[in-house]
User: What shape does this take?
Amino acid sequence: MSIPVKQEMLSPEVRRARIERVLMIVFALFLLTVPWTVPALINTFWVSVIAEILIWSLFAASTNLLFGYVGLLSFGQALFFGFGMYGVGIGIDQLGLSFWPAFGLGIVASMAMALVAGIFAVRLTWHYFAIITVVFSLIFYFLAVSMKWLTGGDDGINFSLPPTFTFGGTQWSFADPNFQYFFILATVAVCFYLMHRVIGSPLGKAFMAVRDNDVRASLIGLNVYLIRLTAFVMAGFLAGVAGALFAYFGRYASATYMFYHVSGEGLVWSIVGGAGTLFGPIVGTTLFIIIREVVSTHWEHHSLIVGVMAILVVILAPKGLVGLWRDAIDRLLTRPADQAAPAKLRVES
Assistant: This one.
């Protein structure tokens, strides 16, 4: 007689993970069909709004990488976003570069600026770190405003879109709304996937060890300074990609986006969505941009609603909306029997 033993009930964490996996698949399918489903259900205008949400979600992810995973409160991410924008704008308008070299110039410029700023900034922590990132952002903001011969000053730089791909006589560029949307979607998806891999790697574990207790992390042999600098440059990369995409999206580069209040918005989106979670920036960015687009057509003070909602979420849901969702699902899936007996065994003969 054989007596196979199997687990009848999965743990709430496993069941929640399965539910989230299904939701992710549904969300991915929705994003892949946006250019056709959204115009049929609402309006073509919202396709551009969703593309903008994707870009700003990537920017919020850069603040989330520092604050949520390393414990560094940065108000300087707008600086790297602006370098990504100006890398594209100056590359096309003044250097005559094509799409990909200009795109690469924006990303490299952002990472180089992040490396320079990070060498000084990551030596500090808490409010000192936040202050020095604000200072860097303000310095280069005022430089960008004053150097009109290079940046266009307050007017910014307008440029014509070069083709993205050319095969024979066929060209694909951001002039095609569908191509623009899918290029942004693919780029943002790749960046989030890379971030997912990094977070799950030993480097990601080192990030969280430094976040939780940098003294203990140093005692077990981790180079806290180098880990923070690595995270800072990686966050600069994410912000730079977002800035370069936004420049192509708007055909425009402006010093306005280098001001520190832009960094503050990205930080709020990240915290409200769920700092320290991969998809928290997407949730927070989506919520606030939709509020902006819906309310701003009826009321010019829509920022008040955004502020009130941010305060309520921080007070009532310290883990953000993603944390609130996970806690609710865990409570729903946890039964009294699960607490008394986590696993029931069935004996079959």
Observations:
- Residues 165 and 171 are 6 Å apart (CA to CA).
- Confidence is low (pLDDT under 50) at residues 1-8, 340-349.
- The beta strands are 5-7, 157-158, 165-167, 170-172, 252-253, 345-347.
- The two ends are 6 Å apart (CA to CA).
